[in-house]
Design a protein that fits this description.
Length: 337
């Protein structure tokens, strides 16, 4: 049976080189945190009760200091640099007609962990390190070397008459927590630098898409703390892209409980409704913050290729679920074909 820390390095994300860090010391601590996430998570209330003051990002970071495993950036946790010899395209010439530019971040199901083999058949491109390439499995800039849901979404958006061109900048990191994307976190600089790089390339994002939450459910991050850190991330994004860019926050928390250990047993898959409620509560259409798909409901355990990650069928369904959510964009026709 895999160790509990393998949630953060599941089979498709195992490093290919020996690890220096003694992860076994995390096993009991993470088991307790996973249980607390399910049993003790606070539900975000929509009642008229007074709203507590938002905790500062530093205070939230301090509360969870030492809980996050220091994952090595090797094996399937390395950032994919792109296929050798892939022709570089002039990003400036790609933005033609109605163009969607989406920055994607989050954890492994937003990166390259889908069953591989998909290649976009339409004008869908990937942006990474200032370079544009044709979108196909896998997308450079994110971790993993398998497949991605995003080229599928790009094809569907163009086929549906939403856009003429779609460009994805994917910086998702396997196993990452909202604590790592927020101010003071180890991926925060990547998020901010990527927004700057898109602007410098003449590709200011029309959308920012976040799919993240499974790690925080397993770690036992309290819903109010998750909400405060998510709000801080959105504030930072807003400071970079302005008030009109749509920020879409998917709802997700499901993880495979390795203490339970039976991938064929539905009871071994845990969710944190308090976290998905916090993700839902972040939506504010007046501020162009919208709710994305709820993959706890959309992708059951039977559609996860290794207990964690989406099959090709699930990736297609995930991509389809974004379409009505993106339809409200002022840059796209409000119709599906």
């Amino acid at each position: 049976m895999p160790l509990l820390h393998d949630f953060f390095r599941p089979r498709s994300e195992h490093a290919l080189t020996p690890q220096a860090m003694p992860f076994h010391r995390l096993t009991l601590g993470l088991a307790g945190l996973a249980a607390l996430a399910v049993l003790g998570g606070r539900v975000v209330s929509h009642d008229a009760a007074p709203t507590p003051a938002r905790r500062s990002p530093a205070a939230v970071q301090d509360r969870y200091a030492g809980r996050l495993p220091d994952l090595p950036e090797t094996g399937e946790l390395v950032v994919y640099a792109g296929a050798p010899g892939e022709p570089a395209l002039d990003c400036a010439t790609l933005r033609q007609g109605r163009t969607m530019v989406a920055l994607v971040f989050g954890q492994s199901n937003a990166s390259n962990t889908v069953d591989p083999g998909y290649e976009s058949g339409r004008p869908v491109y990937a942006f990474a390190d200032g370079v544009c390439t044709k979108a196909r499995d896998a997308l450079p800039g994110a971790t993993g070397t398998k497949g991605s849901s995003w080229p599928r979404l790009g094809d569907k958006l163009i086929a549906g008459g939403f856009y003429d061109t779609v460009i994805f900048a994917n910086i998702a990191r396997g196993g990452s927590s909202i604590l790592e994307w927020g101010p003071g976190g180890r991926h925060n600089a990547v998020l901010l630098a990527s927004l700057d790089a898109l602007a410098k390339a003449g590709l200011p994002p029309t959308h920012v898409l976040l799919h993240q939450g499974e790690a925080d459910c397993a770690l036992g991050v309290a819903a109010p703390d998750y909400a405060d850190m998510l709000a801080a991330v959105i504030d930072q994004i807003r400071s970079k892209v302005g008030p009109e860019t749509d920020v879409l926050v998917a709802r997700t928390s499901q993880y495979f409980d390795l203490v339970c250990g039976n991938a064929a047993n539905p009871a071994c898959y845990k969710t944190c409704p308090a976290l998905t409620q916090a993700q839902t509560a972040a939506a504010d259409p007046q501020r162009h913050v919208l709710s994305g798909p709820d993959t706890d409901r959309l992708v059951p355990y039977s559609d996860r290729n290794d207990g964690y990650h989406f099959t090709a069928q699930a990736a297609d369904r995930f991509a389809e679920a974004w379409l009505p959510l993106l339809a409200r964009s002022e840059a796209a026709p409000s119709r599906l074909q």
